[in-house]
Specification:
The chain is mainly α. Helices cover 69% and strands 0% of the residues. α1 packs antiparallel against α4, α3 packs antiparallel against α4 and α5 packs across α6. The chain is globular.
Length: 156
C-alpha cells in the first residue's frame, strides 16, 4: 500500500463515520426518535478519527509536507466531511505521489520522525500491533473521560 492509497482510505473512512455520527445526532436531537445510534457512532468515529490523525502524521513525514499542510490535514478531521476535500487538494498538488521514502533500501532517515517511520516500514506487523494497542489505550482513556462536553465541566 502506498501513501496515496492509505491516506485516501482513511480519509473516506473518516467521512463515513462522520455521516454515521451526524445521523445518530440528528435522530437524537432533531427527530427525537432514538438516541441508540449515538454511542456506537461516536465510538466508531472516535476510533477512526484517531486512526486518521496517526495516518496524517505518518504521510506528512513521508511526503515532507510543510507544517501548514500537515496542520491543515489534522484540522480537516475536525470539520465534518473535510478530509475528502483535503485529500483531493493535496492529490492535485502532487503531495500524495510516490512510495514510502524510508522503506528498506530507500532513503536513509535522519530525523526522529523519519527513524520512527523507517522502523514502522521495516517491521509492519509489530508496528501495527503497537499502533492498535496505542490507539486502543488512547481510545479507552477517552471513553473513561466521557463525552468532550463533560470533561471537567458541570456535567462531571
Amino acid at each position: 500500500m502506498n501513501p496515496r492509497t492509505l491516506f485516501r482510505a482513511v480519509a473516506v473512512a473518516e467521512v463515513v463515520t462522520w455521516a454515521f455520527l451526524l445521523l445518530g445526532m440528528f435522530l437524537k436531537y432533531v427527530t427525537r426518535t432514538t438516541e441508540a445510534l449515538v454511542p456506537p457512532a461516536g465510538s466508531v468515529h472516535g476510533f477512526v478519527f484517531l486512526c486518521f490523525v496517526v495516518t496524517t502524521v505518518f504521510v506528512w513525514v513521508n511526503q515532507g509536507w510543510s507544517t501548514r499542510t500537515g496542520l491543515l490535514g489534522l484540522a480537516s478531521a475536525v470539520i465534518p466531511f473535510a478530509t475528502i476535500p483535503f485529500e483531493r487538494w493535496i492529490e492535485r498538488r502532487g503531495q500524495l505521489s510516490g512510495s514510502w521514502r524510508f522503506a528498506p533500501g530507500a532513503v536513509t532517515p535522519t530525523s526522529f520522525p523519519e527513524k520512527v517511520q523507517a522502523w514502522v516500514l521495516r517491521r509492519p506487523l509489530v508496528a501495527l500491533l503497537v499502533a492498535v494497542v496505542g490507539i486502543g489505550v488512547v481510545f479507552s482513556v477517552l471513553l473513561l473521560l466521557g463525552p468532550p462536553g463533560s470533561w471537567g465541566g458541570e456535567g462531571s
